[in-house]
Predict the 3D structure of the following.
Amino acid sequence: MLIEDYNLTSRRAARDVAPAINRAYRLVVPLLALWLVVWIAFSWAGVQDDGFIHLRYADNLFRTHLISYDGVHPNYGASSLLYVYLLAFLRAFTSSPTLPRVVSSFAHFLLFSGLVPTAGRSRFER
C-alpha cells in the first residue's frame, strides 16, 4: 500500500466521522452549559471549606508575606499555591468572603467559553 493511498483512506475516514463528532458537540456543549449554570446557581451561597482555607492562606500572605495558615509559622498546607497567590492579589481589591467562589465561577466560565467556538466546527476540516 502506498503512502498516498493511506492518506486518501485516512481523509475519507475522517470525513465520514466528522458529522458524528459535530452532532456530539452540538449535544454535549449545551448540556455542559446547563450543568455549569445549575452548578453555579445551586452552590453560589455555600462557600466550600477549601475556599475558606485558601482565603486564610491568602490573607496571611497578603498581610505577612508568608505562606502560613496561622500567620506565624510558615507552612505549605494549601493544596494550590497558585490559587493562594491569585486570591492574595485579588485580596488587595476586595475583602469579600465570597472571593473564592467568584474566582472559581469565573474560571469555569472561561473554560466553558473555550468550548463553545468548537461546537459548530468540524475537527477534521482543513
